[in-house]
Amino acid sequence: MIELRRAGPEEFAASIATVIDIYTVAMRPPDDQLSGRQSIMRHHATYPDFTCLLAEEADGAVIGFGYGFHGSAGQWWHDVVRRALEEREGAPAAAAWFDNALEIAEVHVRPEYQGKGVGRRLVHGLCAGRGERTAVMSTHDEPTAARHLYRRLGFVDLITMYVFPGGYERYAIVGAPLPLPPMP
């Protein structure tokens, strides 16, 4: 049985090698991106109201993780995406989604555990009991299992076919009102 366990910023930082390993097997990024991703993840743990869940087997082996934090001005993703939504949909739409948002930065599960409800439980667990009005995140803008999962959880497209500055991959920026609907 897979259990979810909260990890604070210090434990998350201490677990970064495990987290990066899961990220690597789940996302298969180019090797040259891993040191930068590790630095970004460590920095995220310093953001306000950081929350992390580790998905563990009975023996304590971590097979998945997810984390997020309260989004605010001055955070790169928050500023870039909010500005893009404002340009496309106007200031009121951007404010509605980003003025009081939980930003889910990462949700990853080892491939052999995908499709078994772990990702769904991670997203629900990250959103549970939060004081924010919305949850927002980015995901590859492709018909992936993750994209399908987020739709089933109530996330809607805010921006599609979005390429981050300096990037080349297309992402969908998605959001959901909180609290999420109960899990079936």
TrEMBL record:
Gene3D superfamilies: 3.40.630.30
Location of the N-acetyltransferase domain: 2-181
InterPro entries registered for this protein in UniProt: Acyl_CoA_acyltransferase, GNAT_dom
Single GO MF descriptor: acyltransferase activity, transferring groups other than amino-acyl groups
Pfam families the UniProt entry points to: Acetyltransf_7 (PF13508)
Protein name: Acetyltransferase
Upper classification of the organism: Bacteria, Bacillati, Actinomycetota, Actinomycetes, Streptosporangiales
